Amino acid sequence: MSKSFTRSVAAGVAALLIGGAALAADTGPRVTDEPEHPRSPGWSFDGPFGTYDRAALQRGFQVYKEVCAACHSLDLVAFRSLGEAGGPGFTEPEVRAIAAAYMVRAEPNERGETTDANGAPLMRAATPADRFPSPFANEQAARTANNGAVPPDLSVIAKAREGHSDYLYSLLTGYTQPPAGVTVPAGRYYNAYFPGRQISMPPPLSANRVTYADGTNASLDQQARDVTTFLTWAAEPKMEERKATGLGVMVFLLAFATLLFLSYRKVWHGHHDVGATGDGAVDRH
C-alpha cells in the first residue's frame, strides 16, 4: 500500500471525525430569518357560520383610532360603513360624530381656490360619505416621520398578508428580545412573525394603551384581538352577507336536488322492468 494512499485515508478519517465533533457540539438553537407560523387565538368570524363580534369591532375601532391612525391610513373605508349592517353597529349620530372629528380636503371655494392665503389646502370636517383620511399629506411626509419607511394602508391588510387575521394578531403580540447571537440594528425591532424577523415599526400596543369605553380590560392580547377583528372587517365588510347568501344557495340546491330525486322516483316508478314479461321472464324478442 503506497504512502500517498495511506495519507489520503488518514485525512478522510480525520475530516469525518472533525465534522462529527462539530455536529455534536452544535446543540443550541439555530438562528433563522424565516418567520414563525402565525398563531390563531380563535375568531368568532371563522367557519361558514362565523360572524363578527360587534363589541370587538367597536373596541377594535377605538384601538385603530387612538393608536394605529397616527401612522396608518384606511383609505378604502368610508365612515358610513361603520353604521351599516354587518359592521361595528354604530348609530347614525355616532357615525356623524366620528366623521366630524376628522378633517378632509375641501372642495374649491366660490373663487375656485383650493388653498388659503398661506398655501395650505382648504379643509373641512368629514361627513359619513367621506373615507378615512391619511395621517400624512404625502408619501414624503410619511417617510420623514417614520425614518424613511412608509406605513402601509390598513384597508385590506388582513387579506393582503399570508396568514391573514392570524398574522396580524401574531405580529402585534410577537415583539420580543432577540435570541442570543442575533443583532438588531438601531431603528429596528425583533419580531419572530415578520419576514426577516426585523421590523421598523415599534411595538404599537402595550397593556392599557387604551381605556375601553365598555370597561373591558385592555390587555395587550385583548387589544390585538380587537384591532385585528376590526381590520378583518375593514378588508371584508360584507363577509356576513356573503356567508348568508352562500348558506341560502346551499339550502336551495339541497331542496332542488331532493325535488328532482322525488320526481325521478315518481315518474320512473314501475318502469324499471319494461323489458320483462308478465310472468317475470325477460322477453328476448
- Mean model confidence by pLDDT: 85
Query: Which CATH class of the domain at 54-77 and 132-240 applies here?
Result: Mainly Alpha
Give the DSSP E fraction (strand runs of 2 or more residues): under 5%
**If classified by CATH, what would the architecture of the domain at 54-77 and 132-240 be?**
Orthogonal Bundle
What layout of secondary structure does this protein have?
Elements: H1 3-25, H2 54-66, H3 92-100, E1 103-105, E2 123-125, H4 139-145, H5 157-160, H6 164-173, E3 189-190, E4 198-199, H7 220-235, H8 239-268
Antiparallel strand pairs: 1-2, 3-4
Helix pairs in contact: 2-7, 6-7
Based on the model shown, name its key terms:
285 residues; mainly alpha; Cytochrome Bc1 Complex, Chain D, domain 2; 8 helices; 39% helix; globular
Characterize the structure shown.
The chain is mainly α and 285 residues long. It has a domain at 54-77 and 132-240: Cytochrome Bc1 Complex, Chain D, domain 2. It is 39% helix and 4% strand. The protein has eight helices and four strands, in the order αααββαααββαα. It has helices spanning 3-25, 54-66, 92-100, 139-145, 157-160, 164-173, 220-235, 239-268; strands at residues 103-105, 123-125, 189-190, 198-199. Strand 3 and strand 4 (198-199) form a beta hairpin. The chain is globular.
Summarize the entry for a quick read.
This protein is mainly alpha-helical and 285 residues long. Helix content is 39%, strand content 4%. 21% of the residues are buried.
